[in-house]
Hints:
The protein is an alpha+beta fold.
Amino acid sequence: MADYVPPLRDMRFVFSRLLDGAGVDDDLLDAVLGEAGRFAAEAIAPLNAAANKAGCTRHQDGSVTTPPGFQEAYRQYREAGWGTLALPEEYGGQGLPHVMATAVEEFLNSACHAFNMYPGLTHGAVAVLEARGSEELKAAYLPRLVSGEWLGTMALTEPQAGTDLGLVRTRAAPNADGSFAVTGEKIFCSGGEHDLTDNIVHLALARLPDAPAGSRGISLFLVPKILPDGTRNAVSCGAIEHKMGLSGSATCAMHFEGATGWLVGELNAGLAAMFIMMNAARLSCGVQGVAQAELAYQKAAAYALERRQGRAAGSAEEADPLIVHPDVRRLLMDARAFTEGFRALVLWTAWQIDQGNDDLVALLTPVIKAYGTDRGFETAVAMQQIFGGHGYITETGVEQIVRDARAPMLYEGANGVQALDLVGRKLLRDGGQTVERFIALVEGQCEDADETLGFLATPLLEAAHEAREAALWLLSQGKADPDALGAGSYAFLQLIGVLTTGWMWLNLAKAALPDAGSDPFCTAKLATARHYALHALPQVSALRRKVEAGAEALMALPPEAFLRD
Length: 565
Ligand SMILES: Cc1cc2nc3c(=O)[nH]c(=O)nc-3n(C[C@H](O)[C@H](O)[C@H](O)COP(=O)(O)OP(=O)(O)OC[C@H]3O[C@@H](n4cnc5c(N)ncnc54)[C@H](O)[C@@H]3O)c2cc1C
């Protein structure tokens, strides 16, 4: 069996029937998706298992060697321009829609998530520099980041500053020539050191000596590994983390020892600037969730057709393939419903970026990040279940997917914090207007849906009403009682995740309807939509009840009561 088959038909279906071709000529779309899928499957996917085994090596001098094959794969990636698709033409990019780059990102993450961690942050780095960098920094760094000659990193986290970046201690002292001397310890820096490019461009958070305390005193600096005069900057890799998964991706502890850096944007406005990069990266996490789920699904579906255990009701065989068992079907249908529905949601959201629909993108970003990565991981675990005990054995490859898929739930802001972003910044801040606009959009489509789609439109309409009730409850309780808001935040994020995926299923089912019966692909879409209506949407009522349960039971115990006697 192939390591990975790019889901080209599904991707094309979303582009042509949901996104109206995304403003791209059909031939170009086919050529890019076809070629990117081929590259991912043939050049990248064969590296995945070996990279997991080999991991990365840090040497005495602080240099880091990536797994065998990564250098050559990155050379091919650069040469083909896969990283430049949606980057600005002004700096050498191809200026294609974000939605195309998002599709390609899914292929690459399914093929080898660890490999894609290296170029993965560069498009966010380009976006920050484009928006906030000085003309000098843009001229010096953007063309080489866009071309992939250099790669970018995000150096935020410190031992005492994870979620709460207001606690960052790294210092930046002004130099006479307008640059800054950056000193401090960063941890968990993905691609902080590697052997894929000659230069690595760190975007690091630090504070000036006289800066206000907390998040209002943080500034953003560009700190290159190699300085413009060709000398080595005082930034180095002290260690690489030994992780649960993604071992082919070097997660580095970085020492900044008076390293020369340049301010990006305004002084003390570094966190807001960094959010440009983080928001791009959060959407990429959702893509990683779908990508891992897709890969696990492909392996499990093939296994379920081949492995014979037990018999179907009334079967005369000695043993039938696993696929005959309804409980195995449940796992596979859940996986199809998530991967296809969420893929459509991620692509639709990327398309909204291209159209400048910022409010909806901002609303959906934490949902895509957290719901997408939670369900991506859960799907990987469910697919491992189909392998029985063999799923626990390294050889089948599915346990690697489980380990790799766990990481994006934690990085770019752990998922619980995404839920707080959803209820705090996205719901409360504008008094619920954007959420209401979104719910009304879903309701409108349910009401307009063809009668044949009633099996989905009717429960989806009910789910949208429940979402509104949950939002109103949070709006009414949240301002007075922050604990109630925090307590209900995760269930609310999940509720919106189930609702938005269901809304995408309505769109997919509508698009498939004319050809259902004649085209097996479209027939399968309708069957999966039906599964979603019956098996996923019922969660909404329970989630609403959890939102409205409040904080009392959660906060009842004093902290010391959590420790066992
Ligand atoms: C594989 C990997 C790669 C990474 N790559 C990078 C990188 O490239 N650059 C970088 O800077 N960092 C990176 N990180 C770090 C990552 O972004 C942080 O681990 C993450 O932001 C969480 O910080 P923390 O680990 O300190 O957890 P903490 O902040 O200690 O949080 C622990 C738990 O408490 C919860 N929590 C914290 N505060 C609150 C609150 N106010 N309300 C409710 N719940 C809360 C969190 O949700 C989390 O579940 C990476 C991490 C990993 C694992």
